[in-house]
Amino acid sequence: MSEILVLVEHTDGDVKKVTLELLTKARELGTPGAVFVGSGFEKAKDKLGEYGAAKVYVAEDAALTGFVVAPKAELLAKLVADVSPAAVLVAATAEGKEVAGRLAVKTGSGILTDAVDLKLDGDTFVAEQSIFGGSSVVHSAVTAGTPIVAMRPNATPPAPEAAAAERVDVAVELSESAKLARIVEKVAVPKGDRPELTEAAIVVSGGRGVGSAEKFSVIEALADQLGAAVGASRAAVDSGWYPHQSQVGQTGKTVSPQLYVAAGISGAIQHRAGMQTSKTIVAINKDPEAPIFELVDYGVVGDLFNVVPQATEEIAKRK
Amino acid sequence: MKIVVLVKQVPDTAADKRLDPDTLAVDRGAVDGLINEMDEFAVEEALQLVEKHGGEVTVVSMGPDDATDAYKKALQMGADKAVFLTDEALAGSDALATSEALAKVLGTLEFDLVILGSEASDARTSLVPALLAERLGLPQLTFASKVEVDGSAIRVNRLTDYGHDVVEASLPAVVSVVEKINEPRYPSFKGIMAAKKKPVETLDLAGIGLEAANVGWAGSRSKVVDATVAPPRAKGTIVTDEGNGGTELVEFLASKKFV
After folding, report:
1. Phi, psi at residue A292, to the nearest 5°?
2. What is the per-residue pLDDT across A176-207, written as a single tens digit (0 to 9) for each?
3. Which parts of A67-173 fold into alpha helices (H)?
4. A-B contacts (CB, under 8 Å)
5. Of B110, B6, B106, B107, residue with least CA distance to B55
6. Is the predicted pLDDT of residue A269 greater than 90, yes or no?
7. pLDDT at A236 over 90
8. Which residues contact A291 (CB under 8 A, 6 or more apart)?
9. Contacts of A108 (CB under 8 A, 6+ apart)
10. Which of A113, A234, A277, A317 is least enclosed, having the fewest CB within 10 Å?
11. What number of other Cβ atoms are within 10 A of residue A302's Cβ?
12. Chain B neighbors of A183, CB-CB under 8 A
């Protein structure tokens, strides 16, 4: 079967859930060859093997992660030239897409972004994309070069199937132009234990109705009872109540969890564009006319400061 | 400093966007167009940089011939002049073709910095800034929440999943900005009037030395095979909290096995 390269998303060898999803998808389409850039392979090896990576191409040169995006694109371009994969899969994260884009220029290939599914139609890879906030579904194909597909997190249920994860060391001589944007410092916002927003099965979000940074604790308490990630509307982030990384919407992250709970969020298009494809949607809002209620499977018209703590307590009781 | 800001005219986000049923491309005629919101932050950043360091701002836009609102807004905010690339052969261009055309336009201009919004609200690929950096061989400083220039050195805070990276490079560079970076000014009445007299250069493919085969439908390296409007979500249950709203909500969640 032909090889499908999968660029691994990880932090020091801690493999992200989206990579397990991509490996699962890659197994349906060919033989997965994972591409691991950076340090921590020993930590990642078992996970990658567990989810079907036949090979792992490992590149540990610090320069690959010391400059913005371009070195990874050069490494992948070399791999594409060397192993002639049938396709390259990346996660549709901000950085994943940029690597994919630059790779597409280098290899003269087409690129499909934000795919929620990928199938083979004969020899052609056809991606499914959900656009305009989920109101339209399109199928697209690449018409030149090796297809490069950026897949959305939470689109494929990850399923283990053991494989060898045979280590193949690779290196690339980086061009000068790959080293123009130098990362001099990495600043991490304290992460906590909650799941990552785009990967979480459940997301609980707060909006303008929450009213302050302190009162977000009400949202967090419900999220913790549900084992959920916490999201925030643009209004809440702009007011400084929650960090930008948690923003869901047109200019924030797009999420598609099994359950999305929106508390104190009116549901303007700006927000809906980021969560409209969630499988089950619940909202709590004082305003019965709030547009969010057009989207919900279940909605409560009421004060979130009454409803949410009551719900949190009820869930705790049932455990 | 010579700064070039790239702006895109997009269908109004609030309107019902759709695909043209014949071409399966974004139907740009069906709804009002306006400047992509993220690009306003890019224009503002450019204006603040020249206010601080001196220089001028040129706005560049590519689109159908009636897509003039985007660059006009930039001129009204304070950009000094505009370059508008319009050609029928560009219709249907994917991000790769778009970046090739824009790179050619940039090749005709002198600049220290190219600034764009990080993502356009229609196709939302967020690829063009990185593609431009690739094509022009310039530092890629994307998703910037802060930009500092010191002589020929530039430093940005680049947003990441875990926080941000501090990235340094030498000018010229490509920067894309996120909305966190500043607050775009409203054009003043004076600005609106002055914009009408600012120079606008219009270019076509011949003017930038690009073959029609490289762009538009002909030059795109991907195609939409089919498109369907998704079935609308079934209407949900809406209840009013009468003291047990939270408990009833949990019953719903339990019925769906979330609890």
Report:
1. -60, -30
2. 999 999 999 999 888 788 999 998 999 999 99
3. 70-83, 94-107
4. 270
5. B110
6. no
7. yes
8. A266, A267, A268, A272
9. A144, A145, B221
10. A317
11. 22
12. 165-167
Q: What is the pLDDT of residues A38-96, one digit of tens each?
A: 999 999 999 999 999 999 999 999 999 999 999 999 999 999 999 999 999 999 998 99
Return d(Cα A189, Cα B216) in angstroms, integer.
42
Backbone phi, psi, residue B141, to 5°: -120, 75
Q: How many CB atoms neighbour CB A280 within 10 A?
A: 18
d(CA A219, CA A223): 6
Instruction: Please write the tens of the pLDDT for every residue from B27-84.
Output: 777 667 899 999 999 999 999 999 999 999 999 999 999 999 999 999 999 999 999 9
The answer to whether A167 and A58 are in contact (CB under 8 A) is yes
Q: How many CB atoms sit inside 10 A of residue B212's CB? A: 15
Distance of alpha carbon A259 from alpha carbon A203, whole angstroms: 6
Residue A45's contacts (CB-CB under 8 Å, 6 or more residues apart) are A56, A165, A167
Strand B163-170 to strand B81-85: parallel, antiparallel, or no bridges (unpaired)?
unpaired
Q: What is the pLDDT of residue B153?
A: 98
pLDDT of residue B16 exceeding 70 = no
Extract the tokens encoding B71: 């660059």
Q: Do A140 and B224 contact (CB within 8 A), yes or no?
A: yes
Residue A82: count of CB within 10 angstroms of its CB: 11
A113 in Cβ contact with A127 (< 8 Å): no
Q: Are A111 and A142 in contact (CB under 8 A)?
A: yes
Considering only CB atoms, A132 lies closest to which of B17, B131, B137, namely B17
Q: Is A42 on the interface with B (CB under 8 A)?
A: no
In this complex, do A143 and B134 lie within 8 Å of one another by their Cβ atoms?
A: no
Beta bridge partners of B63: none
With a CB cutoff of 8 Å and minimum separation 6, the contacts of A104 are: A110, A111, A145, A148, B96, B131, B221
Chain-chain contact of A189 with B163 (C-beta, under 8 angstroms): yes
Tokens of A32: 């997965």
Residue of A nearest to B252 (CA): A298
Residues facing residue A253 across a β-bridge? A248
pTM for the model: 0.91
Q: CA-to-CA distance for A220 and B242, rounded, in angstroms? A: 24
- Decide if the complex's ipTM is over 0.90: yes
> Shortest CA distance to B221 belongs to which of A106, A88, A110?
A110
